[in-house]
């Protein structure tokens, strides 16, 4: 594959056309030579005249985004913690209900055992008498 040459045969144009072509070539050269972030900072510097106005606005914007992200993270964390606490209370209530059922069933089983023993004794006594 052949690489296109950077030499251009420019036809005779007006002075403005030449300046436009040179400016376009300079921009193309910046894109090829500079990484994206440094190109952005160069463009910002050209736009603000190098006074740093854009950096102050960008810094304020970054702080605002950080603050909003921090607040959202805190809200989400609070919601998750509240949900976990709710689940803990619900689980505790369920366990209490189950344990009370087990205690009542245990009492019922003990009563049934007593009745069974009484019936067995009665049957044994009735067999002996016969």
SSE order and pairing:
Elements: H1 15-33, H2 36-48, H3 53-129
Transmembrane segments: 64-89
Keywords: Membrane, Transmembrane, Transmembrane helix
Protein name: LSME1 protein
Overview of this protein structure:
It comes from Rhadina sibilatrix. Residues 37-58 are annotated as: Disordered. The chain crosses the membrane at residues 64-89. Keywords: Membrane, Transmembrane, Transmembrane helix. 84% of the residues lie in helices and 0% in strands. The chain is an all-alpha fold and 130 residues long. The N and C termini lie far apart (119 Å). The model has no long low-confidence stretch (mean pLDDT 78).
The total beta strand count reads 0
Q: Distance between termini?
A: 119 Å
Q: How much of the residues is beta strand, in percent?
A: under 5%
Rg result:
43 Å
Element order: H for helix, E for strand: HHH
Helix content: over 70%
Q: Globular, elongated, flat, extended or rod-shaped: what is the shape?
A: rod-shaped
Low-pLDDT windows of residues: none
The main sheet comes to: none
Structural class: mainly alpha
| Total helical elements | 3
Mean pLDDT: 78
InterPro entries: DUF4577
Region (Disordered): 37-58
Transmembrane segments: 64-89
Keywords: Membrane, Transmembrane, Transmembrane helix
Brief sketch in words of this structure:
By secondary structure, the protein is an all-alpha fold.
Descriptive labels:
mainly alpha, transmembrane, DUF4577, LSME1 protein, 130 residues, 3 helices
């Amino acid at each position: 594959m052949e690489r296109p040459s950077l030499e251009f045969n420019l036809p005779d144009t007006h002075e403005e056309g030449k300046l436009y072509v040179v400016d376009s070539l300079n921009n193309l050269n910046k894109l090829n030579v500079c990484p994206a972030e440094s190109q952005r900072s160069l463009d910002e510097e050209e736009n603000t005249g190098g006074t740093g106005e854009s950096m102050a606005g960008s810094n304020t914007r970054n702080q605002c985004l950080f603050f909003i992200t921090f607040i959202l993270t805190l809200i989400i964390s609070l919601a998750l913690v509240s949900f976990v606490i709710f689940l803990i209370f619900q689980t505790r209530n369920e366990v209490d209900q189950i344990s009370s059922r087990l205690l009542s069933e245990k009492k019922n089983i003990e009563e049934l055992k007593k009745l069974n023993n009484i019936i067995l004794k009665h049957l044994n006594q009735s067999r002996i008498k016969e």
